[in-house]
Design brief:
Two copies of one chain form a homodimer.
Chain A (H helix, E strand, L loop, with lengths): L10 H15 L6 H8 L3 H8 L2 H26 L3 H15 L12 H9 L4 H27 L8 H18 L6 H15 L2
The first copy, chain A, binds a DNA duplex (30 and 30 nucleotides) through helix 3.
Amino acid sequence: MTVGRPRKFNPDDIVRIAIDVFWKKGYEQTSVADLLKATGLHKGSLYQTFGDKKTLFKAALNTYYEDIYTKHKNIINSEPDPLIGLKKSFKEVLSYSGTMGDQSNRGCMVVNAIVETVPNDAEIKALAERQFQRFNSLILGVLVMSESNGRKFKYPPEMTIGLLMTLMTGLSVNLKDMINLEQANQILEAQFELLGL
Amino acid sequence: MTVGRPRKFNPDDIVRIAIDVFWKKGYEQTSVADLLKATGLHKGSLYQTFGDKKTLFKAALNTYYEDIYTKHKNIINSEPDPLIGLKKSFKEVLSYSGTMGDQSNRGCMVVNAIVETVPNDAEIKALAERQFQRFNSLILGVLVMSESNGRKFKYPPEMTIGLLMTLMTGLSVNLKDMINLEQANQILEAQFELLGL
DNA sequence: CTATTAATTGACCAAGCGGTCATAAATGTT
DNA sequence: AACATTTATGACCGCTTGGTCAATTAATAG
């Protein structure tokens, strides 16, 4: 069915590699040359396939988000009690960012993108907002369901989400060089306890 | 006493202007041209006085931090009960970053710097760590003093600080476009309540 | 075997970057 | 008034940046 010379690479693989590079170094500090080196592609191929650097970044950010969202959803659904699943997924995502060569951590790519590009770039800002909202909804569903099953929390779901998401954002940043994974886990667990989760 | 042609500008004023520009746009996205435009200086003057872009950035980051640290300290000391002062200073610093042209906020400059430059730059990382530790000590002093005056908290001071600093970091980021100042204040107050502050 | 289509390749480009430097101008000292 | 010292000024530089493009190669369809 396909006519013409076939690609030697799988675009999806390239996006994953791009995620890795952008995640580590950020958007601005990643040069197109860096991407070429990491992917082994030639300039023309990359530009023909992905348009330009920013488009590739947005594709990477989006794929990153879909991955992490799916990860959460799966963990939540794998537990009989979704609330247990929710807590489990938060803790697992904490270590997802992984420790790099030195002891620093790369944090959450979405958080990094927000800090770096807002308010400089409206499109990425809009993308991050959508992702943030969708993630909030996922958590909201779990909390509301738990409540309707008789569970009582310290605060209404919206406030619980606000505190939880804010803390996660903070952990993502502070893991970069202020705290280690163990401390982060302790902080997160303390917050669960405080919120009555 | 001074020999040679006198400066037409005050270096300290320039650093404040540099803070403003770097804070808004970040390190990489701020060009030397931006700085010249904002300060009205000429290239040679800037380089002669401050060395280079990164040195100026570090000077700006340091001054920013000293400002904010002093601000906190003053507010804490201005209250008969330092614990009240502590809470007040946190809330005040929240609005310190200010709303920009659009509805986005520039967050905390130190947080921005950590996200942008760690792990790319070891010096800035070290600077941020020092500042973080010194700030922690300031809070620790207040909590320990309150405890020795009979106040009881939900957690030991170290954990309280961990939760508080992490939340503040998260608020700084999320204020950029996820939440507004009012929501941020509510979240912060809820956290105070949870921690028994 | 030829035509068609698309991917590969590397040379190329303008613009912007951070940074330098020789010269001119302004002050205090002698 | 001449000198020493410092700052002001803007032309200048090499390099890197993101991005383009024409020629070449490789596959498939007829």
